[in-house]
Design a protein that fits this description.
Blueprint: H1 2-17, H2 21-24, E1 29-30, E2 33-34, H3 43-70, H4 76-112, H5 114-117, E3 119-121, H6 141-156, E4 164-169, E5 175-179, H7 182-208, H8 218-255, H9 263-285, E6 302-304, E7 311-312, E8 316-317, E9 326-328, E10 335-337, H10 342-356
Parallel strand pairs: 3-6
Antiparallel strand pairs: 1-2, 4-5, 7-8, 9-10
């Protein structure tokens, strides 16, 4: 039962953070609609962000209360299914709650004609790519060596592993075993390698994603964006290394089953560090570095070029004329794809196939 409460706590910490997404986005957007930065703190816009956060937190509180109540009456396996379904329902409800606010912002913008009152400007800094935007890719040699170590340990200690391998532990603490084969013992190292490739790919996205400079204060916006990418690239390196270490420990539990009693501690500790780190970094940095304190003077006579027509529902970017594949999210923190670019779909398919590839090891 403690595992259930711990899982609910960790996941709902990050889910609760969704309520504060409007506060993390750039100050040049509000609910997926581009606005002049000088209007970000307008009273009605501030009220909208507060209202959104309040509604989402209420929904989360109701779902959490029901889940906690169900832990006393439902079997652990059934509870697991209910819990996964509830997570999807919460994410969907967050999007449904967002939509009326997005439509209201579009109506306000259309009624007030900001575009006609200010000069729309697109700022491109030709020296942006010359800056140190991310940490060196060479640092990923650390998690790579841990991956290599996991594979070596697996092959060297294969004969010492028991014939029955502890594959899974459910919420109630019951352990599921499977026969030892080359495939079952290589499953975890295979997943390790796949995750490392994904972490490196995300790090690459941070470096090459589309430049976004605020026309109202370009110099400050550039510096904020540089710091934004640097901080997240460091965090991605730390997250990747911790995840690879976690998978190494889980692999050791297969070879030395006596270690499985420490598995929950290892999982919840590392997952907790990553989740809390994500929240803290998002709060202190914001999307595009918008929450980083830098002295600035805003030019209220200009605004960023209006590209709302390319953002479907304020969150999905479709622009056939834009050669960029990766861009900053409009609502939230992080990056998304230009879904009008064919390579975006090829990359997504490639990632799905890569993630599924370790399952082939079960046939060996």
């Amino acid at each position: 039962m403690n595992n259930v409460f711990m899982m609910i706590l960790l996941c709902h910490i990050i889910l609760g953070f969704i309520a504060f997404t409007p506060y993390m986005t750039r100050k040049t957007e509000n609910f997926g609609v581009s606005i002049p930065e000088s209007l970000y703190y307008r009273k009605d816009f501030k009220a909208m962000r507060k209202k959104y956060a309040f509604i989402v937190l209420i929904v989360l509180a109701v779902i959490s209360g029901l889940l906690i109540l169900l832990t006393f009456f439902v079997a652990s396996q059934t509870l697991y299914i209910i819990y996964i379904v509830s997570l999807f329902l919460y994410l969907i409800s967050g999007f449904v709650i967002y939509l009326p606010f997005h439509r209201k912002m579009k109506a306000i913008k259309q009624a007030e004609h900001w575009q006609s009152q200010k000069q729309q400007t697109l700022v491109v800094d030709t020296g942006f790519r010359m800056e140190k935007l991310t940490v060196s890719l060479g640092w990923f040699i650390i998690p790579f060596l841990i991956c290599v170590g996991t594979w070596l340990i697996t092959f060297l200690l294969y004969d010492q592993a028991p014939n029955q391998i502890p594959i899974h532990t459910d919420f109630a603490g019951n352990i599921t075993y499977d026969d030892k084969t080359v495939g079952t013992l290589l499953m975890m190292p295979g997943l390790q390698l796949v995750l490392l490739i994904i972490f490196i790919f995300v790090h690459y996205i941070m470096k090459v994603s589309k430049q976004q400079v605020n026309a109202e204060n370009p110099a400050v916006s550039k510096q904020q964006n540089i710091l934004f990418r640097r901080r997240w690239s460091v965090f991605m390196l730390i997250t990747g290394t911790l995840t690879i270490i976690l998978f190494l420990f889980i692999q050791l539990t297969f070879i030395y089953p006596s270690l499985i009693k420490y598995e929950d501690i290892a999982i919840f500790s590392i997952v907790g560090i990553i989740l809390i780190g994500t929240i803290v970094l998002s709060i202190i940095t914001g999307q595009g570095g918008s929450r980083i304190k830098v002295n600035k003077q805003i030019d209220k006579t200009v605004m960023d070029r209006d590209d709302d027509q390319f953002w479907k529902l304020g969150q999905f970017y479709f622009n056939k004329e834009d050669p960029s594949i990766f861009i900053e999210k409009r609502f939230g923190v992080g990056w998304t794809n230009n879904w009008a670019h064919p390579l975006s779909w090829i990359l997504i398919l490639g990632i799905i196939l890569l993630a599924a590839s370790p399952m082939l090891l079960l046939f060996f």
